[in-house]
Design brief:
Elements: H1 9-23, H2 26-36, E1 42-47, H3 53-58, E2 66-72, H4 75-84, E3 95-101, E4 117-121, H5 129-142, E5 146-159, H6 165-176, E6 179-180, E7 183-184, H7 190-200, E8 205-209, E9 212-214, H8 219-236, H9 240-243, H10 245-256, E10 261-271
Parallel strand pairs: 1-2, 1-4, 2-3, 4-5
Antiparallel strand pairs: 5-10, 6-7, 8-10, 9-10
Length: 274
């Protein structure tokens, strides 16, 4: 499985990182911390690590010592992730890092055998039902906690409201469920599918809301998010292009002046294992 990333993907990850940090469920981290208590040193497998945003946030919240294994298909992103990881855990003990390039959808329980925790952020929507099923089965068989964060649900709310918001949102969600190279993506259905897959493997998943709440302080992110949201909707339904010209200009003007409020719903999921 190969996911085509835009050339400025690292820039986009950096732009969204503060919003991801603000959204993630700290309650689930408290549960993870309790589950890992007394088990250090422990090993964290971070799937689709990107530039390492999740590790930068989570490693300092957990006791150590820790060893992080970062997975991604992009060597440049892996290099950035390694360089940006913190060197110490919550209690000052060391955090060490290694990177692995490869297809994470083919991970097996054997490869995760040493895992104390499996993590991922903003990943599941880019996978197919079959890929999520395989990944969940590997995590469940490994028997360790699995923490999947920032999975979109398809619910978006913009303020002030506009009559076109719902139509654009529906087209965007259809685009997220598109077929790419023979792969039918789960898009906003991913988190629900993932929780059901864990249940089929005898593991109960705890799901918590983790919405982006973008206001005047996140005007740049709101503008770039909106641009990508609308572009995907237009790609799915080209007839929207002519009908949304004025809508786009108005929304971008609102974003650039801090008058656009954006709620992008996500959920976080924790499966503690059997």
């Amino acid at each position: 499985m190969s996911i085509d990333l835009p050339p400025d993907f690292a820039w986009w990850l950096a732009l969204r990182e503060p919003a991801d940090v603000a959204a993630r469920s700290t309650d689930l981290v408290d549960t993870v911390r309790a589950a890992l208590a007394g088990g250090a040193p422990f090993v964290v497998h971070d799937l689709g690590a990107g530039t390492g945003s999740l590790g930068r946030w989570l490693a300092p919240l957990l006791p150590g010592p820790q060893h992080w294994i970062l997975y991604d298909q992009d060597l440049d992103l892996l290099a950035r992730a390694r360089a940006g990881m913190p060197g110490t855990a919550a209690d000052g003990t060391p955090v060490t890092v290694e990177t692995r390039r490869g297809d994470l959808t083919r991970l097996t329980a054997t490869e995760l055998a040493d895992a104390s925790l499996v993590t991922a952020s903003a990943l599941l929507d880019m996978l197919t039902a079959e890929e999520v099923d395989q990944l969940v089965a590997a995590c469940a068989k490994a028997g360790c906690p699995t923490l999947f964060l920032i999975s979109v649900t398809g619910t978006v709310r913009l303020t002030p409201a506009d009559p076109l918001d719902a139509e654009v949102g529906a087209a965007f969600n259809a685009h997220q469920r598109r077929a790419v190279g023979g792969r039918r993506l789960l898009g906003p259905d991913a988190a629900e599918h993932c929780a059901a897959a864990f249940a089929r493997n005898g593991v109960v998943a705890d799901v918590r809301p983790s919405p982006w709440l973008l206001g005047p302080g996140e005007a740049t992110l709101a503008a770039h998010w909106f641009t990508g949201w609308l572009a995907a909707a237009r790609a799915q339904r080209p007839e929207l292009t002519d009908r949304t010209g004025e809508y786009a200009r108005r929304r971008l003007a609102e974003a650039e002046t801090g008058r656009l409020g954006v709620m992008v719903d996500h959920v976080d999921l924790l499966a503690l294992g059997r």
